[in-house]
Structure prediction request, 212 residues.
Amino acid sequence: MKNSVQKVGVHLDQKEIVQNVLKENGGIAKTADFVAAGIKKYDVATLCKEGFLERVRRGVYQSPGNDQITEEQLLRELLPQGIVCVESALFHYGYSDFAPRAWSVAVPRTASRAVGNIGEFPIRAYYIQKEYFPIGKTVESFNGVMLPVYDRERTICDCFKYRTKLDNETFNKAMNAYAADSRKKLANLSMYAKKMKLYTKVMNVMGVLLGG
Prediction:
């Protein structure tokens, strides 16, 4: 009887820990988060079978029936190494009126397995060379969720790098919107363009738009 009481007590403690982990992570957490808090992997699986946890994606969990989880939260948990880029970044900065159906996310070329494990989450992955990956990385709020995103200048450089993937209307609107943006930093644009070997292309267009 004593052993049964101890087991129940331990189980209740596990549930309390799980609730705390979910709370600390905004209602959604990965297996690694639970393990770091002292919950074993098989206990996470058991709590799912019991209906105390709900599996959102492989290795990602939430409280049962929680329909408050946003795509932003899922993206943060599913692909923490990713950086919002190109189409999604253009929309974020107001350089595009088109809300992409899938999240454009930059990832290292070594992250193909991580992207493949995401499943049905709407993502368009851009595999970036190691030397270009950190250029212009910053962090901003997306509907209250802090996500890594390329800054305005890196986003403009990417428009040139991936010119063939953007239609003319999207490209032209982005260039004009950036040129008119009071928050633009032309020194950074020049620096990034040089590093990414896009300097001539970028400056030829910007020179015309900025009257220089």
About this structure: The first helix runs from residue 2 to 24. Strands lie at 28-30, 54-57, 60-62, 83-84, 103-108, 123-128, 137-142, 145-150. The chain has two domains: 2-62, 73-209. DSSP finds ten helices and eight strands in the chain.
